[in-house]
Design brief:
Number of strands: 6
Radius of gyration: 15 Å
Number of domains: 1
CATH topology: Rossmann fold
Strand content: 15-25%
CATH architecture: 3-Layer(aba) Sandwich
Largest sheet: 6 strands, mixed
Strand order of the largest sheet: 3-2-4-1-5-6
Oligomer: single chain
Structural class: alpha/beta
Helix content: 25-40%
C-alpha cells in the first residue's frame, strides 16, 4: 500500500498586503512566523503519532508551499524535496496524477504539499472520482490517503485513512 499525505501549506502573508508592499506575484508570498510555528507543531505531532517516515516530499513551487515542504523535511531529518508544477492552485487533479505516475518513485509514503482548491479537488477526485470538492483543507491541514500503487492512482482509487485540522489537534493560546 502507498500512503499519500496531503498537506496544505501553512499560514502565509495576506495576499493584498504582500502585493501592496512588494508588487510581486502571489506565487512568491511567504509563510508568516505563526505559519511556520503551526506547521512545525503539526508535523511534529504527525511524526510522533501517525507517520514515522516519508520517502519523499513533493511540493508546489510556490514559496509558501516550498517553505512548508522545507519545514516537513527538517522535522523528518532532511528529506529530499521534489517540486511539482502540477500542484499549483489552478492545476486540475488529473495533471498531478499523470505527473506522479510518470516519475517512477520508489517508496510507500509521500508528503504532497500544496494549496486550496487544488488539494481538495485532488482528494475528491482520488476518493470519489468526481471533480467537485466536497471537503476543505485548512492551512496546515493533513490528510492521509491510501492507494494500492502509484500506477493505479486515478478516480476513486484511494481510501481515506485520516483527516486532521490544526484547530482539532493543536491547543494554541490566543
Amino acid at each position: 500500500m502507498i500512503q499519500l499525505i496531503l498537506i496544505r501549506h501553512s499560514v502565509a502573508q495576506e495576499r493584498e498586503e504582500f502585493f501592496k508592499k512588494t508588487k510581486m506575484d502571489d506565487a512568491f508570498r511567504p509563510l508568516t512566523l505563526k505559519g511556520c510555528r503551526r506547521l512545525e507543531k503539526m508535523t511534529g505531532l504527525m511524526k510522533r503519532r501517525w507517520v514515522k517516515n516519508f520517502d519523499l516530499v513533493i511540493t508546489s513551487p510556490y514559496t509558501r508551499a516550498r517553505q512548508s515542504a522545507e519545514i516537513i523535511s527538517q522535522v523528518y531529518s532532511e528529506l529530499k524535496i521534489k517540486e511539482c508544477a502540477e500542484l499549483v492552485p489552478q492545476s486540475p487533479p488529473q495533471a498531478f496524477v499523470k505527473w506522479i505516475k510518470s516519475q517512477n518513485f520508489k517508496g510507500s509514503t509521500f508528503a504532497v504539499v500544496g494549496h486550496e482548491p487544488n488539494l481538495s479537488l485532488l482528494a475528491t477526485y482520488l476518493l470519489a472520482g468526481n471533480e467537485y470538492a466536497f471537503l476543505e483543507f485548512k492551512k496546515a491541514g493533513l490528510m492521509c490517503l491510501e492507494v494500492d500503487t502509484l500506477k493505479s492512482l486515478g478516480p476513486s482509487s484511494a481510501q481515506l485513512q485520516w483527516l486532521m485540522s490544526p484547530k482539532l489537534v493543536l491547543r494554541e493560546r490566543k
